[in-house]
Structure formats: structure tokens, C-alpha cells
Design brief:
By secondary structure, the protein is mostly helical. 84% of the residues lie in helices and 0% in strands. It has 5 helices and no strands.
Length: 85
């Protein structure tokens, strides 16, 4: 089933979606103006990594697994929080 998924198309769609304006664009602009270019670039990198991680998870069907089993979502959520700490 994974062989039927065109991962390159999904990654390109995720890139296009992350480049479109939205709340993340406002956060990046605000952070860049308030704290400088490096902080804005770090925020951009974090947003891109998060967006691509969720896109790949959805492409591999993890979204359906997390909907069916709430404990899987909780494990991923706490793992992400632990990583951020």
C-alpha cells in the first residue's frame, strides 16, 4: 500500500502549502522584526519541519491510526513536547 503513494507529490504539495500566507507568515514576520533575521529563520525552520512531519505522517496513514487510537496521538504529543524541552 505504501508503494502506491507518490511521496514526491505529497512533499511538493506540503512545500506549497507551507509557503502560502497564513498565521505562520505573520509569526515569522513579527519575530523577524522584533528579534532579527536569525530568530525569524529559526522559526521558519521549525514551522517547515513540523509541517513536513505531519504531511509525511498523513501520507503514511498515521493520521487514521491516531484517530482510531487516541493513545498513539498522546504518545506522539508527549514525545514532541519532550523534544522541545
Amino acid at each position: 500500500m505504501v508503494g502506491d503513494v507518490n511521496l514526491l507529490v505529497i512533499l511538493l504539495a506540503a512545500l506549497a502549502a507551507s509557503l502560502s500566507p497564513g498565521p505562520a507568515s505573520l509569526a515569522i514576520a513579527g519575530t523577524s522584526m522584533a528579534r532579527g533575521r536569525n530568530s525569524g529563520l529559526l522559526l521558519t525552520a521549525g514551522i517547515m519541519v513540523g509541517s513536513l512531519a505531519w504531511s509525511i505522517a498523513a501520507a503514511l496513514g498515521l493520521g487514521a491510526i491516531m484517530l482510531a487510537n487516541a493513545w498513539v496521538f498522546e504518545i506522539i504529543r508527549y514525545a514532541g513536547a519532550g523534544y522541545l524541552l
